[in-house]
From TrEMBL, chain A:
Species whose genome carries this gene: Bhargavaea cecembensis
InterPro entries, per database record: Metalloenz_LuxS/M16, MPP/UQCRC_Complex, Peptidase_M16_C
Pfam families given in the database record: Peptidase_M16_C (PF05193)
Protein name from the UniProt record: Peptidase M16
Domain Peptidase M16 C-terminal, chain residue ranges per copy: 181-355
PANTHER family, alphabetized: INACTIVE METALLOPROTEASE YMFF-RELATED (PTHR11851:SF186), METALLOPROTEASE (PTHR11851)
Gene Ontology MF, one: metal ion binding
Domain of life from the UniProt record: Bacteria
From TrEMBL, chain B:
Domain annotation Peptidase M16 C-terminal: ranges: 181-362
This protein's name: Zinc protease
GO molecular function: metal ion binding; peptidase activity
Matching Pfam families: Peptidase_M16, Peptidase_M16_C
Key word Signal present: no
Keyword check for Cytoplasm: no
Domain Peptidase M16 N-terminal: 64-173
GO biological process: proteolysis
Domain of life: Bacteria
Keyword set, alphabetical order: Hydrolase, Protease
Length: 426, 432
């Protein structure tokens, strides 16, 4: 899919030439092992880099320049995958050929290089006002999780299940670590990022591969580096098991159930587990949707997600809290049915077709192409969409039965309203 | 079949109006694996008072019925339509807005079986009292889910207070109480009135051969019989530009207050390029006043009055239009004052010029080009514009024709003090 060029040790460029889009998409990704401190520093760093550059030293100046360049998108982001944290610097600009009189591509590459290499500094560190404001913004983002009860409940589930693991560390950092940051600390984090991180640069669009490689090489000269690898996993105790209920002022009950599985991303059984999750609760034809929603009318949504890097499957459903017991039982039954091998040919073929469709569809956007390729590229044998789809084809009902046997319920978490608790029937 | 070339954006659109009145549009996009097909009726949550097909008297149906009907279309005598799309590897969905109900799928395989399924399931209603009753539990949970979303409550609370009677003030899904009154007969009545092909539009975009697809849809439609098209009589209350309620608030379990300022605006009156120009003028004016490069945004962000949740919204349809500006804010009163002051400042002396317009124009041209990467955007927006008598692909033409005086014109209703409302979602008072 992408042409890979090694720019220097630890820095790789991936280019995909395509006429599919009217824009060119750029993404520069910095990767480091995930820790709560590091995530906090980098979440603020990402915001600072998005705010301004040396050339455009205020938010308004930078945003005006972007508007003038036909609304070129420029943003930074943070995320996590497995034990790694990612900070990405991204841009998307209109294909020059559609505008004619401008050189938007060159301008966008210059902007990205400015953003990454020539930030908006004062006396060698990030400007204190910018730092303070962006720290505040990230803090507010972290706190606002509380307002989104579904996301809040999911985060609580992960924290309870894996209190010390990367599973529960948020890519946007943690309040206590954010509070302790200073401009100097973030500056130090920036220097390490530029000097030590593994870097991947992605380009998608109607580009000349040679020319764009030359432009990017010239714009970014990173030194070679030996990227940090994850330390050997220390034996980690798993977190809570059983049931946990918490109350807030709200109407609906948010039922989140966590399962653990030894089958993780990149293992032999991984494609089979993707299918098993699909049959369990990944789609509107899945067992959870058909039984919890359609048959019992208990929920508007009832679905499962496979967090393959962590060996977790989580189920979430929005229900009347008084029915939590019944819903949990019903969800368990769906898994029991799978363990007993009750999987129809229809379910199997539908799920295969849906997964294939989902993958092919995701590749119809430039961001999707980057995301998916980036996720799968390091698997042995490389990645092609059709190659991956072929791995689902031979999976049988017996395989799904075996996979269901490798899914163990660990924790049932219910977040529900306070009033219900007062009136709750015995 | 009509072929329309839009050379500025390198797109070719194919169009035909079928004998039964159905509008079909097809836009092939090279390089795409998927095809997105939507089948939309011009019928939404606001259409609750109308003359049913074949009758003479106006009826008023329960709130939330268009959305309820959308849900029920997926259940048939022989099972669930999602299952059938699933067999063909397509992902299907539907949504109901104030003015439209859309059914859609996207698929990378079995395009024609999926298209047939879409056309057939939307054109074969099946409602029984039993299935209608069962759905009430599911939609009840959907409504409860929205009840717990503070952003939605704040946004909708704002709209609710802008209008005295217009049904745009009613939540699209209705309430647990209002949906309890819905019967299968209601659903049939609404279905027969609003799902006539002459009130509907099909849009297919992505990996699609226009000739073949048009022939396929034509054949599918020819095999079915429909009543003669009739003009649908819908009734809406007329109301003043003044907002119904000036201030409202709600207590919810949030970490920080949320505040929204709503502005009631005159409904879109023009069609074609003029209509588009008018709409774009509003959008650009709102960007100039409150967008990321505005004086307001710079100051409010630095003063900590707004955060990343800040947003501006402009909604315009035939019959109503409004703008909502808001953010999470630790100082909701100060933020409200600043928004009001900004509007006041702009109304006293027009603070923008040619340069501002030119910059926003370029930004919007770029935005439009980028949006054309998305088949979902194309189908949904094209349909919306078509139902309002406009063409999405006139966007660049309309943008290029905009003048500063067009911006000045829309500033007048935007700054009308009488048309405003403020809505706040507050965290619970301490000690409770």
């Amino acid at each position: 899919m992408f042409t890979e060029t090694r720019l220097t040790q630890g820095v790789r460029l991936y280019v995909r030439r395509t006429e599919q889009f009217k824009t060119l998409t750029f993404s520069i990704r910095f990767k480091q092992p995930l820790t709560p401190e590091g995530a906090s520093e980098r979440a603020v760093l990402a915001n600072i880099l998005e705010d301004s550059t040396e050339t455009y030293p205020s938010r308004a100046a930078l945003r005006q320049a972007l508007e003038t360049m036909y609304g070129t998108l420029y943003y930074t982001d943070v995320g996590k995958r497995g034990g790694y944290h990612y900070l990405s610097v991204n841009a998307e600009c209109v294909d020059d050929r559609l505008i004619r009189d401008e050189d938007i591509t060159d301008w966008t590459i210059r902007l990205l290089a400015d953003a990454v290499l020539r930030p908006n500094l004062q006396d060698g560190v990030f400007k204190p006002q910018v730092f303070e404001r962006e720290k505040q913004t990230v803090l507010e983002r972290v706190r606002s999780l509380y307002d989104d009860k579904t996301r809040y409940a999911q985060q609580r589930l992960l924290t309870l299940m894996r209190p010390e693991g990367p599973e529960s560390i948020r890519a946007t950092g943690e309040e206590s670590h954010l509070e302790a940051l200073t401009p100097e600390k973030v500056m130090e984090a920036y220097r390490r990022m530029i000097g030590e991180d593994e870097i991947e640069i992605y380009v998608v669009g109607a580009v000349d591969e040679k020319a764009i490689t030359a432009s990017l090489k010239e714009a970014f000269h990173f030194e070679g580096r030996v990227p940090a690898v994850l330390p050997e996993k220390a034996a980690r105790g798993t977190g809570k098991e059983g049931r946990v209920s918490e109350k807030q002022n709200m109407k609906q009950g948010k039922l989140h159930i966590g399962f653990s599985t030894p089958v993780k991303f990149g293992t032999e059984d991984f494609p089979k587990m993707q299918l098993a999750n699909g049959i369990f609760g990944g789609f509107p034809h899945s067992k959870l949707f058909m039984n919890v929603r359609e048959k019992e009318s208990m929920a508007y949504y009832a679905a499962s997600s496979y967090l393959s890097r962590y060996g977790l499957i989580t189920v979430s459903a929005g229900i009347d809290a008084e029915l939590a017991e019944k819903a949990t039982k019903l969800i368990d039954e769906q898994l029991e049915v799978m363990r007993a091998g009750e999987i129809t040919d229809n379910e199997l073929s539908q799920t295969k077709a849906m997964l294939a469709n989902q993958l092919r569809e995701a590749l119809d956007s430039s961001r999707g192409q980057i995301e998916i390729f980036d996720q799968y590229k390091d698997l042995p044998g490389g990645f092609t969409p059709e190659g991956w789809i072929a791995k689902w084809e031979p999976v049988t009902a017996d395989d799904i039965r075996d996979m269901a046997g490798k899914i163990d319920r660990q924790l049932v978490y219910l977040l529900s309203g306070k009033e219900e608790s007062a009136d709750a029937k015995a | 079949m009509q072929k329309l070339e839009y050379s500025r954006v390198n797109e070719t659109l194919y169009h035909e109006t079928l004998p039964n009145g159905l509008q079909v549009f097809i836009l092939p996009k090279s390089g795409f694996s998927k095809t997105y097909v939507s089948f939309t009726t011009r019928y939404g949550s606001i259409d609750n008072t109308f003359v049913p097909l074949g009758k003479d008297e106006i009826v008023r149906v329960p709130d939330g019925i268009a959305h309820f009907l959308e849900h029920k279309m997926f259940e048939k005598e022989d099972g669930d339509v999602f299952q059938k799309f699933g067999m063909n590897g397509a992902s299907a969905n539907a949504f109901t807005s104030f003015t439209r109900t859309a059914y859609l799928f996207s698929a990378t395989d079995k395009l024609y079986p999926n298209t047939e399924l879409l056309l057939d399931f939307v054109q074969a209603p099946y409602f029984t009292e039993e299935t209608v009753e069962k759905e009430k539990g599911i939609i009840g949970q959907e409504i409860t889910m929205y009840d717990d979303l503070p952003d939605w409550r704040s946004y909708f609370g704002t709209i609710e207070n802008l209008y005295k009677e217009h049904p745009v003030k009613i939540d699209i899904a209705g309430t647990v109480e209002s949906i309890s009154k819905i019967t299968a007969d209601h659903l049939y009545e609404c279905y027969h009135t609003f799902y006539h092909p002459s009130n509907m539009l099909v849009f297919a975009v992505g990996a699609v051969d226009p000739e073949e697809m048009m022939a396929f849809i034509r054949k599918n439609q020819e095999a079915k019989t429909f009543d003669k098209p009739e003009r649908i009589v819908r009734q809406f209350p007329q109301e003043k530009m003044e907002s119904a309620v000036k201030e409202g608030s709600l207590e919810m379990d949030v970490s920080k207050p949320k505040v929204h300022v709503g502005i009631k605006l005159p409904a879109l009156a023009e069609e074609g390029v003029e209509g588009l120009k008018h709409e774009l003028a509003y959008q650009i004016m709102i960007d100039l006043l409150f967008g990321k490069t505005s004086k307001f945004y710079t100051e409010a962000y630095e003063e900590g009055l707004i955060d990343e949740s800040f947003s501006t919204d402009f909604t315009a349809e035939e019959g109503f239009a409004f703008s909502v500006i808001g953010s999470d804010s630790a100082k909701p009163e100060e933020l409200t004052r600043k928004i009001q002051d900004t509007l006041q400042w702009a109304s006293e002396k027009f603070p923008f010029g040619q340069e501002d317009l030119d910059r926003q124009r370029r930004r919007r041209i770029g935005f439009f080009m980028r949006a054309l990467n998305s088949v979902e955007y194309i189908a949904n927006q094209f349909t919306r514009y078509a139902f309002n008598g406009m063409n999405l692909f006139d966007t660049v033409t309309a943008l290029e024709a905009l003048e500063v005086k067009d911006l000045q014109e829309v500033l007048v209703p935007l700054t009308d003090e009488q048309a405003r409302t403020v809505f706040t979602v507050k965290p619970p008072a301490k000690g409770e």
